[in-house]
Amino acid sequence: MFLFRWPTGRCALHVGDFRADPEMELLPELNFRPIDTIYLDTTYCDKDYNFPPQKEVVAYVGRLVRKYADLYPSLLVVCGSYTIGKEKVFMAAAQELDCQVWAPTEKRSILNCIQDPIITERLVTDPRLARVHVVNMADVKPGNLKKYLQTLGSSFSHVLALNPTGWEFDQRTGILSIL
To answer: What domains sit in the chain, N to C, each tagged with a CATH number?
Structure first.
């Protein structure tokens, strides 16, 4: 979400295809003054997109990561991400494992711009020091992941890939597809 306050005093809110949450109504920035204009992406307003609440998805990620980390102590979790977004997903994995997070230089720069101290304190520059890696969403494919794991030498034995997008949710079963 982007909140613009113009010198004229007018205020505009721009949202992308984000997951609305009732807690957002409590954000002081949104209650400071009236919003004059809202630019709303309605992609997911269609009844066909009936996703579980974000908190449930994030909790599921934590449980999933814990399950596989218990099975494979040297597990690497790879999380797909766009330029911005998916921070709650990969941070749920990092918090569950109480570990560092690695991302490519450009992505790390973007994450540092967010100025979230919880994210910043977990970021590292050496991929072998982090059990959670944030990669481009397009790179979360089985063939890519096998090669990726090999580039890290013996640091990790198994990989759990998270492709956090609504396109991976099967409404008929209520299950998220995880590679």
So the answer is: 2-45 (no CATH), 54-176 (3.40.50.12650)
SS3 state of residue 146:
helix
* Mean pLDDT of the region 153-167: 85
Residue with tokens 């944030």: 134
Report the C-alpha gap between 136 and 146 in whole angstroms: 15
| Residue 149 to residue 171: CA distance in whole angstroms | 31
Query: How far apart, in Å, are the Cα atoms of 79 and each of 49, 84, 89, 125, 141?
Result: 22, 13, 8, 16, 11
Question: Residue written as tokens 């998805």?
Answer: 57
Question: For residue 104, is pLDDT > 70?
Answer: yes
Rounded average pLDDT over 115-137: 95
| Candidate ranges 2-11, 22-31, 61-70, 142-151; pick with highest mean pLDDT | 61-70
Q: Quick check: 179 pLDDT over 50?
A: no
- The alpha carbons of the chain give a radius of gyration, in whole angstroms, of 18
56 contacts 29 by C-beta, under 8 angstroms: no
The CA distance from 69 to 75, in Å, is 6
